[in-house]
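Dear colleague,

Thank you for sharing your sequence with our group. We've completed the structure prediction you requested, and as agreed, I am returning the results in plain text so they can be pasted directly into your records. Please verify that the sequence below matches your submission; if there's any discrepancy, let me know and we will rerun it promptly.
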Amino acid sequence: MKKAIRILGAFLLLFFVVTAVSCSDDDDPANNDFFAGTYKGSVGYNDSDNNISSNDGSVFVTKIASGTKYNFAFSNGIPDLNGVEFNKQGDNTLVMVGSTATSYIRIDNNDLKILYIKDGKTWTANCTR
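Please find the predicted structure tokens below.
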């Protein structure tokens, strides 16, 4: 009986490890009810008091409960962008509602592109997963 319990315990442990490892970066932010992922690359921020730029930055993206809004947590002391609303474009791409040629956020499984200007502040990102 002890041997059976040990084998079952080992199997359950292996199952949880495989399940945790199989949660890969292949998650698609456009097709998941819940999404959290880190994109790495160049990030920047500029306002009247700050000029932050890094080629080795990151942005942690999470989908919030509304289902169409996302939060963007930047590294390097860059202020977060929260509650940005998106529309799905094509199969796997999300585009910020109200995007223009000079202010946009695009996100898909592999890439995050940000040029977001609001109230004299500018956020930029060119990142991949």
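Summary note from our side: The longest helix spans residues 2-22.

Kind regards,
the structure core
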